């Protein structure tokens, strides 16, 4: 098999929504690549919450028994305050094994996505430079990080959060609208995190965000040796699996793990980066209050339900990104000054219909197609190629104004929802009444009488 390899070094991307089975698929892919003749295969984590050393249950880090002897990297290398506790390129030993962190050396802090992208790219390039027959698998669901490894110039602006510190949240949309009305029209004024990022981009680069986003995107690595597998599950099938996974995490000790973390960090827990991870912040009311044990038990139950709801919401967000955000970038991305057709390298593998090893058989066929350019019979009706399918033209999300209600909506389909709402139907009824009254009596309809509650308020 070694002599038939078309590519001596390959880079795979395995992504999908949380709970889709992408981690298991990445391990199976690594085993299959070894069977194909790749002597060194490494899995690189791209899930931000799993960067942290603490909370292995809450962040669902891989166990040694599930790693199947495949080297895993970029896992459990940061403290709660973003300091390195080990080198991310070192092999991870598994969340079910005793862990040790280097705490006696001078602290060096992780500098966000730029730091991650630089270290991962350097790591991959070193792997490929020093050995042939090497495969790297980037696996995770943190969309922006994956996108930034795959596409070269997706990182704009700086990581300095103080660049726009002089602007209050309520004024952010106005400031963005002054410099880039086109991009501002796509965001709700309450979306302060993204608006602050847009203003940061403008102040750091001197260019409008619209200009930067319209620049040609380039593949960071040779796209001829890159392949993307989307581990897909429909949301109807995924949601029960996610709820079940949360229940399993609870039985494994999630509640006690988070409780110890809160007690360890006490009043500083909100300042830790990992606090924002799903499975952590939901327990704030339970472990930072003076409530009775009965009230605390009720708060824990409520936290678990919130974790399930937040996980489902996050999964749907990831599916939207893989469906709507990433494909247009790949379609227009270039390599060596010309657009590269990535269509046959971006695959959607449906894991809903797995029966008795069908995923393994489909993966065999997929690798035969990818690595040996042989159109296997196993590919028929088992995977999709989204980039090769005709895509509907989608328009960017923008503001839409209902003049009748004097109401602004943001987002696709939001105007149709408003037009069917009780508020709009009531306004139409009122408009029809006013028109009929004017035609019949020649005078406008008298203003509505104030409600007693309104009078009390005034």
From TrEMBL:
Keywords associated with the record: ATP-binding, Nucleotide-binding, Transferase
Domain of life: Eukaryota
Gene3D superfamilies for the chain: 1.10.20.140, Classic Zinc Finger (3.30.160.60), P-loop containing nucleotide triphosphate hydrolases (3.40.50.300)
Region ranges (Disordered): 436-458
Keyword Transferase: yes
GO molecular function terms listed in the Swiss-Prot or TrEMBL record: ATP binding; tRNA dimethylallyltransferase activity
SUPFAM superfamilies, per the entry: beta-beta-alpha zinc fingers (SSF57667), P-loop containing nucleoside triphosphate hydrolases (SSF52540)
GO biological process: tRNA modification
Transmembrane domains' residue ranges: none
InterPro entries (UniProt xref): Dimethylallyltransferase (IPR039657), IPT (IPR018022), P-loop_NTPase (IPR027417), Znf_C2H2_sf (IPR036236)
Keyword Oxidoreductase on entry: no
GO cellular component: mitochondrion
One family name in Pfam for this protein: IPPT
Family, as annotated: Belongs to the IPP transferase family.
PANTHER family: TRNA DIMETHYLALLYLTRANSFERASE (PTHR11088:SF89)
Protein name (database record): tRNA dimethylallyltransferase
Organism listed in the record: Strigomonas culicis
Record lineage: Eukaryota, Discoba, Euglenozoa, Kinetoplastea, Metakinetoplastina
